[in-house]
Amino acid sequence: MIALYPRGSEEPFDALEAVAAEDRTPRTSRPWVLANMIASADGATAIEGVSGPLGGPADLEMFTALRAVCDAILVGASTVREEDYRPPSGGPAEARAARSARGQATRPQLVVVTASLSLDVDQRLFADPEYRPIIATVAAAPSERRRALEDVAEVIECGTDQVDLGRVIDELGHRGARTVLAEGGPSLNAQLIADDLIDEWNLTVSPILAAGSSRRPAHGPQVPHPVAPMSLSRVWQADELLFCRWVRA
């Protein structure tokens, strides 16, 4: 990894340490919310339904570095299914040691957002009996699915018919989270933007032209009100990928 902006340098550095050194002090009583997405140079977020072909070792390094600093990971049920999520590991040994030194849990808490509870208890996400993810759903969710999922996860209500992401973030804050990493998909990101909840936007730009019908990194109804402007914080490069970070201005 090398830095291009704001101060360019040909001296390579470790993303794990550099990401951990970035300031993510919450600006309000709620946790700091950072999003992380990858897109092709022409804006596609997936190839044949998954994001893996867009990245590579450098993108995995950034993915690991961002997960290493967060207290919780927020993700939509569609992304969990499409990307075949598993419980987070907490990263390499040095990342876990740094988490402990900061007073964080060894592994971040994974939180799945789904109003319909469209998850299968046999998914890899629920394969570790020592790790229970949180499922944020609504009061109107199907009761049979809820009972099945309560055997493998903690199910919380955050809304009546639609998951209220502000309530989810607040609940995580009450549980001690200071940083929440949103990993998509695009519909979840769009809702976070509409609710003005994003403090930091990380976008990896892949040197691939994908075309196709893939959605944008945030895809949903037009936001009916101006959102907070973002300021470009840094641009890093590795393996022809660009790693861009914007924060609230």
Question: What do you see in this structure?
Answer:
The chain is α/β, with parallel strands linked by helices and 249 residues long. It has a single domain, classed as Dihydrofolate Reductase, subunit A. It has helices spanning 15-21, 57-69, 77-82, 93-101, 143-149, 165-174, 186-194, and strands spanning 2-5, 32-40, 72-76, 109-113, 134-137, 154-157, 179-182, 200-206, 230-238, 241-248. It has a ten-stranded mixed sheet with strand order 1-9-10-8-2-7-3-4-5-6, with helices on both faces. The radius of gyration is 18 Å and the shape is globular. The protein starts with a strand and ends with a strand. The model has no long low-confidence stretch (mean pLDDT 95).
Major beta sheet, strand line-up:
1-9-10-8-2-7-3-4-5-6
Main β-sheet: number of strands, strand sense, barrel status? 10 strands, mixed
Mean of residue pLDDT values: 95
Number of extended strands: 10
How many domains in all? 1
Q: Low-confidence segments, ≥5 residues, pLDDT <50?
A: none
CATH superfamily: Dihydrofolate Reductase, subunit A
Order of helices and strands: EHEHEHHEEHEHEHEEE
